[in-house]
Specification:
It is a single chain. The chain is mainly alpha-helical and 324 residues long. It has a domain at 1-85. 71% of the residues lie in helices and 2% in strands. It has twelve helices and two strands. It has helices at 2-16, 23-45, 51-70, 76-107, 118-127, 133-137, 149-168, 175-203, 209-224, 226-237, 251-280, 296-312, and strands at residues 113-115, 142-144. The protein has a two-stranded antiparallel sheet with strand order 1-2. The radius of gyration is 29 Å and the shape is elongated. Pfam families: Sec15_C. It comes from Pygocentrus nattereri. Keywords: Exocytosis, Transport. Residues 78-318 form the Exocyst complex subunit EXOC6/Sec15 C-terminal domain.
Length: 324
């Protein structure tokens, strides 16, 4: 940045000559220039939607600030600006990952993950912290209860945390402060971005009862994995495990809310389907006595309910709607 060279020269003149410039003059000149620099950076950074470009801007500001600080200029306002830009950076990351999550959900088949052998099983559990003693005892081939979107979502949450960490580096903050910033960013990803994607997914017309049941199972496993995300952040920030964190991950509420929404949607769709059977049926309600034959419509309804309740048996906990 040309401003760096200018003030380096000014500092050199200050120390190499006598009476030509004064510290008060250079400080006044620096404060005036700094105000204009911050105004320009704040304006242009607010229009940037590419997280990589925002990250490049941050790196340039850090180099500029560190250099000028080495020559005795006050750069606190620049680092305050970096925290403003960091919020902008996180917003661009959230928008980027919203698209990532939507694509994952669109490509999911909402069926349990099949594993043919030990190698495939290890491939899945290496990407997602899944442990189930009963399933581990089963012979191959076998199926894991969650669908393919679960390990993909878990990996992308970790990738988001890595991306968020890139901005926190070189900001001269302690590991505890960086850890807290990462947790706040992860909370926004879980409670706003991922939660919104899940709620939109559940309401999509093509998502049927089978898919909704699988979503309930998926969110149960993602909820259980939140403790591993907590440990992941602690490990990459090198914070002591004994540290009492001021910020916790809110993933539990995100996945519980999604699960409740899916359960409510199942109840709605189930009632709508039953109503459709009743409306289509041509029942003879005034029949004096039974002719010994069940209505074909009624048999279709019973078969539908039988197959639907069979799907519900895959739920990890007793489904409360069945008691309604």
């Amino acid at each position: 940045m040309p401003e760096t060279l200018f003030f380096v020269v000014e500092d050199h003149i200050l120390h190499a000559t006598q009476g030509l410039v004064t510290r008060a003059f250079t400080d006044e000149l620096w404060n005036m220039a700094l105000s204009k620099i911050i105004a320009v950076l704040r304006t242009h950074s607010s229009y940037c939607n590419d997280p990589d470009l925002v990250l490049e801007l941050k790196n340039l500001i850090v180099i500029f600030a560190d250099t000028l600080q080495g020559y005795g200029f006050s750069v606190n306002r620049l680092f305050d600006l970096l925290f403003e830009i960091r919020d902008q950076y996180n917003e661009t990351l959230l928008k980027k990952w919203a698209l990532v999550f939507r694509e994952i959900f669109e490509q999911d088949n909402y069926s349990p993950i099949p594993v043919e052998n030990e190698e495939e099983y290890k491939s899945v559990v290496s990407r997602f912290p899944f442990h189930d003693a009963e399933i581990e005892k089963q012979p191959f081939p076998k199926k894991l209860p969650m669908s393919q979107s679960v390990p993909q979502i878990y990996i992308q949450v970790k990738e988001f945390i890595y991306a968020s960490l890139k901005f926190s580096e070189s900001l001269h903050r302690s590991s505890t402060e960086i850890d807290d910033m990462l947790r706040k960013s992860a909370n926004l990803l879980l409670t706003r971005t991922l939660s919104g994607c899940l709620q939109n997914l559940i309401k999509k017309p093509h998502i049927g009862l089978t898919e909704l049941v699988q979503i309930i199972i998926n969110t149960t496993h993602l909820e259980q994995a939140c403790k591993y995300l907590e440990d992941f952040i602690t490990n990459i920030t090198n914070v002591s495990p004994e540290t009492i964190h001021t910020t916790r991950l809110y993933g539990l509420s995100t996945f519980k809310d999604a699960r409740h929404a899916a359960e409510g949607e199942i109840y709605t769709k189930l009632n709508q389907k039953i109503d459709e059977f009743i409306q289509l049926a041509d029942y003879e309600w005034g029949m004096a006595e039974s002719d010994g034959r069940a209505s074909g419509y009624l048999m279709d309804l019973i078969n539908f309910l039988r197959s639907t309740f069979q799907v519900f048996t895959h739920l990890p906990v007793r489904f409360a709607l069945l008691n309604a």
